[in-house]
Design brief:
Layout lengths: L1 E3 L4 H6 L2 H5 L5 H12 L4 H14 L2 H11 L3 E3 L7 E7 L3 H5 L7 E7 L2 E7 L1
Parallel strand pairs: 1-2
Antiparallel strand pairs: 3-5, 4-5
Helix pairs in contact: 3-4
Length: 121
């Protein structure tokens, strides 16, 4: 399975003009990214557009991308929050920790069978 993430969305989707033509519903994201790439003062706009595009891709778009690439494709969205909090039970601790690899610091507090996790960048 191929994963489209913040690091791969440019190479897999944005730079491929034939694939972009198959996704006309997302054309505004492509245009905004292109503008951000070619105007020096708008580089941050291009970066933000990649995040917005990851959130805009729906299952029907994934089907088109999968068919075009000839492989099953999934999306890994980017959580732009600086801090995230999670509550879970001890038996579910590993599932709570899943997805926190992008955070620089993680604090875990346990009270009885309950765990509270705070992670920040």
């Amino acid at each position: 399975m191929l994963e489209i993430s913040l690091n791969t969305v440019e190479d897999l989707v944005l730079k491929d003009s034939r694939l972009r033509a198959l996704l006309p519903e997302l054309q505004s994201y492509f245009d905004t990214w292109f503008l951000g790439q070619h105007v020096a003062g708008l580089k941050s706009l291009a970066s933000r557009t990649k995040i917005d595009l990851l959130h805009a891709i729906q299952p029907q778009h994934l089907a088109v991308i999968s068919k075009y690439l000839g492989r099953e494709v999934s999306i890994r969205t980017f959580d732009s929050n600086t801090v995230t909090n999670r509550d879970c039970g001890v038996v579910d601790a590993l599932q709570c920790l899943d997805g926190l690899a992008d955070y620089a610091e993680i604090a875990v507090y346990r009270k009885g069978d309950d765990i509270h996790i705070t992670a920040w960048r």
